[in-house]
Amino acid sequence: MLVLSPAPASAHDGPDPIMHLDFRPQQLQGTKLRARLGMDVELSGPLRWSEDEFGHSLMLTPRTAAYAQPASPAMALPATAITVSAWVSVDEPLEWGGIIGRIQDDGDQELGWMLGFDRTVFTMTISTSGADDGNGRHTVLKSTTPWVPGKFHHVAAVFDGQSARLYVDGKEEAFTAEQYGEILYPAAQQISLGSFRDGNEDHRMTGRLRDIRIFDLAAKPEWVRLEFEHGVKVAALAARPVVSASGFAVEPYLQFGTQTSMTVMWRTTQLGSTLVRYGATSACEQELKLPDQREIHQVLLQDLEPETQYFYSVESTLADGSVAESPTYTFTTTVHEQTPFAFAVFGDTQKNPQVSGKLAAMAWAQRPSFLVHVGDLVDKGTLANHWTEHFFPGMKPVAQRIPFYPVLGNHEENAQNYFDYMALPDPEYRYTFRYGNAQFFMIDSNRDISPGSEQFEWLKQELQQSQAVWKIACHHHPPYSSDEDDYGNLWKTRLSTRGDLRARQLVSLYEQFQVDIVWSGHIHSYERTWPVHQGRAVEQQGTIYMITGGAGGSLETAGPFRPFFQNNVKHGHHYCMVAVNGGTMEIKAFDLEGRLFDTVTLKKPAGPSPQR
Ligand SMILES: [Fe+2]
Ligand SMILES: [Fe+2]
């Protein structure tokens, strides 16, 4: 019988294990966790430690890989009797979770053993020469006690040549005599930790490893009970899931890309640290950390190459010690001046993540370079959950891959939330940006935009200076609209201002400086005007007014009268995609089923080349 230590990991008076891993930072040498006995473990991915009053444990996420490779045949695992004893905490369910094992279930052959877990309980998987159904079939033992997320359990798998037993927290919970004889090992010698890994599978666990020992003896029930009792204080620690995607109140999204920079943002559910990993490959070899603790995280990545794909992921260690860690995403920096590009236009997503999410997924499938949002991102800007439950979940398919450039709608109510979540040039409510050969002028039409106002004068100056081939202005309220009742009830009278008169104050600037397109929302519908100049539809050299207000808000309808400016109007949820190649611009509009319902191609001489 084995009689062992006041475990885990102190002096003992029983037989030595053939392998003993004590997961603590002192054992780490580079990327190698030195074993107290037996094989060292090679680690890759983010290495983090969890500490409690009794010691340390290694935190594992799907980005962590751990394995041990025997240096010589002498280190081979025992085949006729084995005990695998582990102190472990599991955080996330997996269909096939592995704590430690040397296993294979490819093709016809099921070989080796694994101590693991599934969606609810611990498991022991084993294949032996004497199995009743012939060689090469696994038997999976399942515990009766479910694992508790974030809680340390002691689990032991024992095979004595006659039968296999699985123990949890000192108690035998599963037994089989189906497997007997010798363990059938796969050819690959590698031992996997924290993963069910074989030739074609690698299911990595989320949780913590504290202590693992392998013996070439079959432990008796009494030893397993004592082993648990020696660590009972560890087992009594409060459950503390340490690694979890649920630490994000807002998952990572991108803001204000340029040719050489990108801002990565996210929000955590508690105060937490700020770290972005990024780089040229999915290994994300560069790191940028910010000091201090915060909930809304904003990291500016600089010195990037233009028109280049990057990879990134984010991580925050939260106040309670848990870690929020994102998958690896990509972004692309702003293209060179002459390179074709495309962008999506969304508006009035409001409180409809079902619709905005579907449109966002369709838009991302068309690989836009960025997205313009014409306002009413949310239904009520002052409400925290409208951002965390409506806007960001809806926009997630695009926002984690490309930056979006918004303007304020009336529903934002100028709330601080908007300014906290956006990373735009000061004063944020208005700004301009370049992309390829286009320049965008982003204006807050909720504020004063009359001649002489700060915004009007700023816009005038920016337009005057602009050398861009394409000039696109964007604000929430539409200068021209044929809506049935927003500007006069056209079912009762023939009187309508046919658009927002405040916004129309900017038309003189658009005409003076030959702005190509003005994008608005507010009316939850689609409308495209003919080119307009001095109150008339023209065939050339006018400004086109687009309403793209159909990304979620409840829909509106055109009135019965067709105003001079109207080219195309449509009731229905939608978004626009715009592709630019030199002096050619193609505008397309897609409905909720992905059907193209409007398109127009604009052409002009590619014109003078700005600032490069
Ligand atoms: Fe709206
Ligand atoms: Fe609005």
Q: Based on the structure, what is the oligomeric state of the protein chains?
A: single chain
Mean pLDDT over the full residue set: 93
User: Rounded to an integer, what's the Rg over CA atoms?
Assistant: 31 Å
User: Strand arrangement, largest sheet?
Assistant: 2-3-4-7-16-9-10-11-12
3D structure, described in words:
It is a single chain. With 612 residues, the chain is mainly beta. The protein contains seven helices and 40 strands. A nine-stranded antiparallel β-sheet has the order 2-3-4-7-16-9-10-11-12, with no helix packed on it. α3 (353-365) runs parallel beside α4. The relative contact order is 0.09. Mean pLDDT is 93; it is low at 1-12. The structure holds fe (ii) ion (2 copies). The site of one fe (ii) ion (FE2) has 9 residues, from loops.
What key phrases describe this protein's structure?
eight-stranded antiparallel beta sheet, 612 residues, elongated, nine-stranded antiparallel beta sheet, mainly beta, binds fe (ii) ion, disordered N terminus
The gist of it:
This protein has 612 residues and is mostly beta strands. It contains seven helices and 40 strands.
Topology, pairings included?
Elements: E1 19-22, E2 28-29, E3 32-33, E4 41-44, E5 48-52, E6 55-60, E7 65-68, E8 82-90, E9 97-104, E10 111-117, E11 121-126, E12 139-146, E13 152-159, E14 164-168, E15 171-176, E16 191-193, E17 195-198, E18 201-204, E19 207-215, H1 221-230, H2 232-236, E20 248-255, E21 262-279, E22 286-301, E23 309-317, E24 323-325, E25 329-332, E26 341-346, H3 353-365, E27 370-373, H4 384-399, E28 404-406, H5 416-421, E29 431-435, E30 438-442, H6 454-465, E31 470-474, H7 507-512, E32 517-520, E33 526-529, E34 532-533, E35 536-537, E36 544-548, E37 566-570, E38 574-581, E39 584-591, E40 596-603
Parallel strand pairs: 26-27, 27-28, 30-31, 31-32, 32-36
Antiparallel strand pairs: 1-19, 2-3, 3-4, 4-7, 5-6, 6-19, 7-16, 8-13, 8-19, 9-10, 9-16, 10-11, 11-12, 13-14, 14-15, 17-18, 20-21, 21-22, 21-23, 23-24, 23-25, 26-38, 29-30, 33-36, 33-37, 34-35, 38-39, 39-40
Bound molecules: fe (ii) ion (FE2) (2 copies).
One fe (ii) ion binds at residues 348, 350, 376, 409, 411, 522, 524, 549, 553.
